Known about the structure:
Number of helices: 5
Largest sheet: 4 strands, antiparallel
Mean pLDDT: 79
CATH topology of the largest domain: Alpha-Beta Plaits
Shape: elongated
Amino acid sequence: xxxxxxxxxxxxxxxxxxxxxxxxxxxxxxxxxxxxxxxxxxxxxxxxxxxxxxxxxxxxxxxxxxxxxxxxxxxxxxxxxxxxxxxxxxxxxxxxxxxxxxxxxxxxxxxxxxxxxxxxxx
Length: 122
């Protein structure tokens, strides 16, 4: 199971304890190993976008609760699934007609659907 977790801070709650927690996040990310697929900074925001690969909702809940910023951040958790693509025979037919599935286009560019969505927001 994959989840996109968007987290950010309320500027009115920022203080020295939050700064210390933020400074611990890179080490926390390393400890997660393969549970953390990738992480991004959301430009213009005090927070991030992290993609977790876990076996259950409970595992994700445990991982988030252990985060140094857990008590200071606001979270939005979004479940992810693979983008549906057409079977090869339909893709061949579509390319002969001059159209390409969007997911295949992004994949050919080396950009995942999620990355394309995040890039398109800014």
